[in-house]
Design a protein that fits this description.
Strand content: 25-35%
Helix content: 10-25%
Oligomer: single chain
Length: 300
């Protein structure tokens, strides 16, 4: 019964953490370029249960876990040398009858990189990526990556994101838009190149936005504020990005890939699972109370 309490409790903890993940997804349903999280759970290692036969000396039938009974006798395999054509001479032979689950836990919070819907805004410096890729941003903590392409030109003409972080070009430098470059004269092509149409009608390339991607989904992790950072491995090597295969769309923004209806349905399901585990804890507690206060009571 104690094992049942722990198993049900791990289920409650798992559903609570999964609810936190879903709630965060719902809260960011309107966040530009947000990629939803998925809570991946795993099961604790099962325990092998064996059956104990009645013995001629009056032993009782029972269960053992991982090959041991309460007397400490090790159970043998059905392939033991004392076993022949269904007959077993070993008095302690106990066949396996199944495995006992010990609950589950959250193994990983995975990111779903599925493409979000593209929304047209008409703003010159609103950029979306169709396909794989990230914009490269310079932050106080170092280079970071984002799918949020809601950029603007500050008073100095530097292209920045909504937090004031500079957008980097392919040479890891900030991008400066000429002061006399009106929005109508700025064109951003699919590869991230920014062109300025001069008075004589010629288009001059100002810079090329650095677009990167990571072949391994585990090479980057979420930092917060819709930013990702490259992971450092055990040897101290930082994951290196590759040129992106996605295409930049000017005057558009990528919406969050969170589906509100699906998340709400999953939230209700998690609530039901949490209630079921809570009920199991209550039931186990009632059984323990009965075994301690009633079964062991001496009449009279």
């Amino acid at each position: 019964m104690w094992r049942g309490l722990y198993t049900a409790a791990t289920g409650m903890i798992t559903e609570q953490r999964r609810t936190d993940v879903i709630s965060n997804n719902i809260a960011n349903a309107a966040t530009t370029g947000y990629k939803k999280d998925i809570a991946v759970h795993a099961e604790f290692e099962n325990m092998l249960i064996r059956r104990v036969y009645d013995h001629e000396d009056g032993g009782t039938v029972g269960l053992t876990v991982d090959g041991f009974n309460t007397l400490g006798n090790l159970g043998t395999s059905s392939e033991d040398v004392t076993q022949f054509k269904g007959f077993n001479a070993d008095p302690f032979y106990r066949p396996a009858i199944g495995r006992l689950g010990l609950g589950d836990y959250i193994d990983e919070i995975a990111v779903d990189y599925e493409q979000g819907a593209i929304e047209s805004t008409g703003n010159t410096f609103d950029l979306a990526i169709a396909g794989q890729g990230f914009f490269t941003i310079q932050t106080p903590d170092g280079v970071r990556y984002t799918r949020n392409g809601a950029f603007f030109k500050n008073q100095d003409g530097v292209l920045q994101d909504i937090r004031g972080y500079n957008v980097l070009d392919t040479n890891n430098r900030s991008i400066t838009i000429p002061r006399d470059a009106t929005s109508e004269r700025i064109t951003v092509t699919g590869d991230g190149s920014i062109f300025f149409t001069q008075n004589n009608g010629n288009a001059r390339r100002i810079a090329q936005i650095q677009l990167v991607q990571f072949d391994d989904r585990l090479a980057i992790e979420k930092q917060g504020n819709n930013l990702f950072y490259a992971v450092t491995d055990a040897e101290g090597n930082i994951a290196q990005p590759q040129p992106a295969t996605g295409e930049v769309l000017q005057g558009c923004l990528e919406k969050s890939n969170t589906a509100i209806v699906s998340e709400m349905v999953e939230l209700i399901h998690n609530h039901r699972m949490y209630e079921a585990n809570a009920k199991a804890v209550t039931t186990q507690d009632t059984m323990l109370d009965a075994s301690v206060n009633q079964v062991g009571r001496i009449g009279g």
